[in-house]
Design a protein that fits this description.
Number of helices: 4
Number of strands: 6
Strand order of the largest sheet: 1-4
Strand content: 25-35%
Helix content: 10-25%
């Protein structure tokens, strides 16, 4: 079956993937030389094996996943498909070819970043905490000054274009 599995994998096109647990083989023809129940110095066997496997297109599952997630996003959040994944597994039930798809999607709060930048520009750093806590669905923040002038770290820059805001998940490892 291992050789047949590699043969099937070599025939996959584009984003097609094989469900690893779905590979099944069945002997459809057996030939022995000499025939069984006879004696001989050499015995050769020829087997014909029919192999089948479930193959799917990754982009089809991704598209279905995005539709399901987008239909179930709570108000005030948005979905970024680049921060998501789908895992497909085979599940046998009464000899039917069933599978499960596990969706892992991160949702981020919908924020008007340009408005936030304008509102916090020139703001003393001591006033940032109450402002951030007043925003819906924001769990925390971090301020990093890239200025070589350490004297100017008590206030944010006056120009909003000098402020960079990055939204991260708590699960991010960056």
């Amino acid at each position: 079956i291992a050789k047949a599995k590699e043969d099937i994998k070599s025939r996959l096109v584009g984003s097609e993937k094989i469900l690893e647990d779905s590979i099944e083989g069945e002997v459809s023809n057996e030939k022995y030389n000499p025939q069984t129940d006879t004696e001989g110095k050499e015995v050769t066997a020829s087997l014909t094996l029919n192999v089948q496997a479930l193959v799917y297109k990754e982009e089809d599952f991704t598209s279905i996943m995005e539709s399901i997630v987008r239909a179930n996003i709570p108000q005030g959040y948005e979905f970024n498909p680049q921060n998501s994944s789908v895992e497909v597994n085979k599940k046998n039930k009464d000899n039917n070819n069933l599978f499960t798809a596990v969706i892992n999607a991160q949702l981020f709060p919908t924020l008007d970043l340009s408005r936030i930048k304008k509102e916090i520009s020139g703001m003393p750093t001591k006033q940032i905490d109450p402002y951030i806590k007043s925003l819906t669905n924001v769990a925390g923040y971090e301020i990093n000054f890239k200025s070589p002038f350490s004297l100017f770290t008590s206030k944010l820059p006056q120009l909003s274009q000098n402020i960079e805001i990055e939204v991260k998940s708590r699960l991010s490892t960056r």
